[in-house]
Amino acid sequence: xxxxxxxxxAGDLKALLPVSPDAWPQNIDLIRGLVxxxxxxxxAYRAASFLDDRILGAATQGAWLPGPAVTEAARRxxxxxxxxxxxxxxxxxxTLLSRxxxxxxxxxxxxxxxxxxxxxDAHDLLSSRESLLSDAQFxxxxxxxxxxxxxxxxxTRAVVVKATSSAGRLAGTLLDAAPNSRAVYMSLRxxxxxxxxxxGANSVTDLRGHGPGRMRRLLAGRELEVTPLHSxxxxxxxxxxxxxxxxxxxxxxxxxxxxxxxxDFDEFMADVATGVDRxxxxxxxxxxxxxxxxxxxxxxxxxxxxxxxxxxxxxxxALRLAESRRDNRxxxxxxxxxxxxxSRQGDDLAKVLAGGAA
Length: 358
What we know:
A hairpin with a 4-residue loop joins strand 1 (about 25-30) and strand 2. The chain has helices spanning about 5, 10-15, 40-45, 65-75, 95-105, 115-125, 135-150, 170-175, 190-200, 205-220, 235-255, 265-270, 270-280, 290-295, 315-325, 330-345, 345-355, and strands at about 25-30, 35-40, 60-65, 85-90, 105-110, 160, 185, 260-265, 305, 305-310. The chain is globular. By secondary structure, the protein is α/β, with parallel strands linked by helices.
């Protein structure tokens, strides 16, 4: 967007912020103290797989607004909806669940807000000399975003934010700041997770890109004998991802108990209606047989959730897993052996590998 296009609707968007999700806080600039607010609508939210820069285009209307003005607007929100979260370990059906919740008719799904990633990065640096924010400033920023995410349309019974996998490290902070919120935490056992990741077209690039952050998270507070990141094979990098995100899930469930519903993706797919029913009950949303039957037959189950224009029939995942297990047998074995090695170095690592959340 050019500067003229960004600034033209600034007044309208500022007025919309306290009353409608049509003004969406797409990004935050901690250096300049600004928030990028863009115009959205219910159809755009439903269509979006990612609420990051991929939703921006030449026709996007938006403006960078001063942070204090956005904070004041957030404080004037008069009718916040219940706000809940979907956390996940990555590639475990979280977008599918979010879209199925959309199908129930009362949920506004916010998938992977870019600002949530920025908030997670800012939280990592709190109390360090590198932090741009004090603890109080961070708390104010988080409160502002939680209130903005809680806006709904007339039909909205609840808003459900689906985080990126790495933003799961902020689960505890979000739930502490929003004591009435609940969460689902989706995951997979190690072997199907490795097969899924290694079967992806850009798997090695993606795994290497996330590798440094995941290694830092694994080693934080632990003394482990672990191979340097540059020496890890693709299967071991996939295992690193599974282990770090699974440890994050376990810690969140331990800390917040019944407020977090752990959900295994394979078990969810074996009985979608029952899985959605459990999630609706957890979030305190209406459930009935008509809705659940409709959801279990939804066209969403025939599409690739992150790109709904692409068909993805129910048996496609099993076929792709079988293909990856055949083509990546050696790397899957390396990843599983790496996990077994690390599980002998700590009880928490062993429990995660064994499948225990507690």
